[in-house]
DNA sequence: TTGTGTTTTATTGCCTCC
DNA sequence: GGAGGCAATAAAACACAA
């Protein structure tokens, strides 16, 4: 992965996690803006004669053998103490500084790789959470629909119950007259449902029965109800 | 062959630690 | 204050499509 790709992923990451990663952290204390370096043409060289420099050497790619050896060493220990550096350098026929530089760059690559892996892990966790959220939202919608249907049903049933009760009263009045002893206890109040009537159908139907007046013709009412069931 | 993008090697400037 | 680490960057080396 190149730098642009990493930058793109980091941008995406900060968009996904604006709270945590969306802001560029302030520069470390006392850090001045870096001056842009200028470097003379002509490849590797340290004109000021820094010890261990590669004066006059053309930048060269390390051989597969050298890289393999360096990788092995990096695998066992990411840091390079100077004794090991010198030993490795002489084993590989390289300048100790080259070995140090190689380790430095290798650590940088390793760090980038780690970041990529961490990013991938977090991204897949995030994606799973999004999918889970979608499922839960669909479930909520479904349950809301079911609740609406149940409410409609309850409303229908309560209307039917009232209607049945009314017919029942009318029937009794027609046959026995208003002074029939059997009807003295029937309430003339309209059937009222308990406040907050809403919820489990079975329990609420039981409640409705409790609120029905004494001596009501439950059987007839139930017949009425059955038309609506 | 050449233009362009990527990877590797190396440098620079700053920081921390002893 | 010097050694060593790191981030940023330059530039050579390399890969590859057109």
Automatic annotation (TrEMBL):
Transmembrane segments: none annotated. One of its GO terms (cellular component) is nucleus. Keywords: Coiled coil, DNA-binding, Homeobox, Nucleus, Transcription, Transcription regulation. InterPro entries: HD (IPR001356), HDZip_class_I_plant (IPR045224), Homeobox_CS (IPR017970), Homeodomain-like_sf (IPR009057), HTH_motif (IPR000047). Residues 105-160 form a coiled coil. It is found in: Nucleus. The keyword Ribonucleoprotein does not apply. Residues 31-41 have a biased composition (Basic residues). Residues 58-113 form the Homeobox domain. Residues 60-114 bind DNA. CDD domains: homeodomain. Its main location: nucleus. Residues 1-56, 168-190 are annotated as: Disordered. One of its GO terms (biological process) is response to auxin. One of its GO terms (molecular function) is sequence-specific DNA binding. Residues 42-55 have a biased composition (Gly residues). The keyword Zinc-finger does not apply. Transcription factor. Belongs to the HD-ZIP homeobox family. Class I subfamily. This is Homeobox-leucine zipper protein.
């Amino acid at each position: 992965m190149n730098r642009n790709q990493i930058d793109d992923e980091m941008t995406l990451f900060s968009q996904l996690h604006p709270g945590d990663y969306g802001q560029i952290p302030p520069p470390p204390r006392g850090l001045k803006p870096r001056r842009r370096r200028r470097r003379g043409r002509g490849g590797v060289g340290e004109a000021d004669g820094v010890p261990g420099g590669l004066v006059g050497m053309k930048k060269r790619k390390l051989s597969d053998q050298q890289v393999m050896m360096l990788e092995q060493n990096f695998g066992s220990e990411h840091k390079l103490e100077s004794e090991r550096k010198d030993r490795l350098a002489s084993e590989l026929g390289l300048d100790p500084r080259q070995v140090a530089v190689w380790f430095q760059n290798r650590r940088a690559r390793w760090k980038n790789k780690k970041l990529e892996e961490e990013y991938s892990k977090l991204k897949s966790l995030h994606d799973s959470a999004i999918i889970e959220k979608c499922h839960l939202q669909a479930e909520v919608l479904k349950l809301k629909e079911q609740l609406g249907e149940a409410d409609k049903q309850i409303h229908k049933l309560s209307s039917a119950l009232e209607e049945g009760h009314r017919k029942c009263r009318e029937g009794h009045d027609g046959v026995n007259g208003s002074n029939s002893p059997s009807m003295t206890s029937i309430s003339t109040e309209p059937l009222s449902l308990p406040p907050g009537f809403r919820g489990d159908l079975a329990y609420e139907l039981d409640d409705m029965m409790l609120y029905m007046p004494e001596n009501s013709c439950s059987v007839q009412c139930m017949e009425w109800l059955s038309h609506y069931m």
